[in-house]
Amino acid sequence: MCGIVGYVGEREAQPVLINCLKRLEYRGYDSCGIALLGGSTEVYKDAVRIEALEKSLRPNDSQTGIGHTRWATHGKPSEANAHPHTDCTGKIAVVHNGVVENFLQLREQLTNEGHVFRSETDTEVIPHLIEKYYEGDLEQAVSRALVDITGSYAFIAIRADCREVVASRKDSPLIVGIGDKEYLIASDVPAVLDYTDRVVYLEDGDTVVITSASIKITRNGEQVTRAEDRIPWSVDEAQKAGYDHFMLKEIHEQPKVIRNTFAGHISALEPEIDLDMRKDIDFDNILILACGTSYHAALVGKHVIQRLTQIPVAVDIASEFNYSDTVLGNTLVIIITQSGETADCMRALKKAKELGCHTLVITNVVGSSATRIADEVLYIKAGPEISVAATKSFVAQLIMLYLLALSRASADVRSRGSLIAELRQLPNKVHEILDREVEIAEHGRYLARYESAFFVARGINFPIALEGALKVKEIAYIHAEGYPAGELKHGPFALLTPDTPVIAIVAKDNTYETLLANIKEIKARESPVIAIAEEGDDEIEKYVDFVIRVPRVDPIFSPVTATVALHLLAYYTAKERGCSIDTPRNLAKSVTVE
Ligand code: M6R
Which of 173, 193, 220, 364 is the most exposed place for a label (fewest CB within 10 A)? Predict the structure, then answer.
């Protein structure tokens, strides 16, 4: 949700900033811009994409600068609203991620004091406030400006004739990459991967000042030290590696991701799971909170945990929980968030803690904001996920939820050993689906001709119907709805026509017979039906138009195999429709505003 970057060092800042912005583009791509420090502050902006901005740049040997790639909140995507924003003198430039909540009041006040605004953004108040308080020390001016601002922010400021970069964060992520005689500040780790694997994660309330030779972090005016960490990802992991899109690469990485996620947690000799979690935490029930695709993982988790442990599990969308009067007792609250930065999840996490619950975060990003607040953290090992559409992280979340449930499954659950053995086989099963890519692509091209579709399933696969529909909406721009198969007849049947395909996820579990009956009802309304069904299920052929085959697994793992098929289906549907697959319109990877 907006990517920001700052650089100071011995290289030319311009190519470094452009490269970092390309790495941050998944956070927003409505517009972009950079500002370079010289005798004055030179600002370049583009209302569209980074490639266009790059082409418009004049040579500039400045070694200090800032950059921004925007996901619009206040003000439409336009050159005027693109960051960096400057003060009246044009000397101070600021890039910002977050929302200045009191910007209208500040803008009015600053306008009355003679400041002239050129954009509709909330951000523009920041350079004007810094200008107002500047008395020869940029850091001090930033500190005084911070007192006036309410809301969430990670921003970076520079001023012509000060060869330093000043940044601050509150409720928006910010990291410092430490290089050799150079420092980078960025919203996220992938931005700095090309330059360093040494990083400092800033805490809420931190202000940092970097020069090419020094870093100083302060909090409430006091200097503080923050530990340096190593980034666990390699540069190669953040490259397309010959694939047309990151999404396809990330789908293909799933066998490895599944293995990496369970590695180290499953004992080689015993059918035991060790998640290295606190054993002394007592709870009566579980509440799982998440957004988007991670919410779908939570819904699968509810089925799995309840089935294997008999612990009652509730699931809520994080943004809904935040405004609800949910009554929590002796509850373990689990937050699932790939990025660890989603604002709705962060707020939910804080609320759960305030309510006295023990909190566990399942995330992909080491050092992310959620990991700093939660009582316990479980890392999925998906590696950097660059495509806005979550794929491999979703499957890794499912694996972590299986591990969690299996680790708590009562010892007398006789099937535990065989489930663990089957879990180990999942990477091979996923390979088998990837081997059918050409065939699934054909179905994607078929689906691409429709403007509306339903995804249906029952039981543990209902969340996968939601996930299949979300992916098709998100990247192929087809209106799609995920429904429990039994619910269609309670209203949505009115929409079934030969132009409304239905994708049915058919697992060989206790829902099978009823789902077949539902499919027959759908066919009677002449909708084309594509089934995702396991090998050996010959019965299904009689009732549907097409079958996408997935390998046979214990039904508890059927969400994994169905998901891989559906993600490929969505990818090829979007490809056929010529969509911007990795950077779908209006979206951003990490949603750090509520
Ligand atoms: O980083 P998070 O898991 O908290 O993100 C949650 C959603 O924003 C995310 O899953 C979103 O729905 C994906 N773009 C879906 O593909």
Answer: 220
